[in-house]
Structures are given as structure tokens and as C-alpha cells.
């Protein structure tokens, strides 16, 4: 797919999900909060739940990734048979 001429900001994506797709963003925020509540109280920098890692910085969840995702820029080495 070709790179869009006018990319959408994160704000625009959130508003699209709310207004066009009808998603309740506040409900999503509450769900994330419930998942990481104990970790936040314990001062954790991350919580793993349901195969996802919830990254916490400064008492706020800043991202959610799949548990076994390689960090950007790193490739898995191929094993030789």
C-alpha cells in the first residue's frame, strides 16, 4: 500500500474510532486500567496479561504490545539446520 499523502494523527485516529466506528474510548481506558491496576500500585514498569505487555512509565500506560514481539530494528537470527 502506498504511503498516504495526508497521514492521520493519533488524535484523528481516536476521534475516527469514537465517532465513525462508535467505539467507547473511555471504556477502553477503563479496561486497560483494570488490567494494570495492581502493577501500577506496586510501581511496576510493565504488566503482562492475556499475551500482551502493558508498558508503564510515570504511573501511566504508554503502550501495549504483543508479548513475543521483537523490538523495532531487531531481527530474529535464523537457525541453521
Could you explain how this protein is built, in words?
There is one protein chain. With 81 residues, the chain is an alpha+beta fold. 33% of the residues lie in helices and 21% in strands. It has a three-stranded antiparallel β-sheet with strand order 1-2-3, with helices on one face. Strand 2 and strand 3 (60-66) form a beta hairpin. The termini are far apart. The model has no long low-confidence stretch (mean pLDDT 87).
List the helices and strands and how they pair.
Elements lengths: L9 H10 L5 H17 L4 E4 L2 E6 L2 E7 L15
Strand order of the largest sheet: 1-2-3
Gross geometry: flat
- How is the biggest beta sheet arranged? 3 strands, antiparallel
Helix content: 25-40%
- Cα-based radius of gyration, to the nearest Å: 17 Å
The number of helical segments is 2
How many β-strands, per DSSP?
Answer: 3
The helix-strand sequence is HHEEE
State the secondary-structure class.
Answer: alpha+beta
Q: Give the overall pLDDT as a whole number.
A: 87
Any low-confidence stretches, pLDDT <50, length ≥5? none
Termini distance?
Answer: 35 Å
Approximately how much beta-strand content do the residues carry? 15-25%
Quickly describe the structure:
The protein has 81 residues and is an alpha+beta fold. It has two helices and three strands.
Give short descriptive properties of this protein.
21% strand; 81 residues; flat; 3 strands; alpha+beta
Amino acid at each position: 500500500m502506498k504511503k498516504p499523502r495526508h497521514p492521520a494523527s493519533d488524535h484523528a485516529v481516536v476521534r475516527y474510532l469514537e465517532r465513525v466506528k462508535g467505539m467507547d474510548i473511555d471504556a477502553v481506558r477503563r479496561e486497560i486500567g483494570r488490567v494494570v491496576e495492581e502493577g501500577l500500585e506496586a510501581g511496576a514498569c510493565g504488566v503482562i496479561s492475556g499475551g500482551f505487555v502493558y508498558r508503564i512509565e510515570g504511573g501511566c500506560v504508554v503502550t501495549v504490545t504483543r508479548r513475543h514481539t521483537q523490538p523495532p530494528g531487531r531481527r530474529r537470527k535464523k537457525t541453521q539446520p
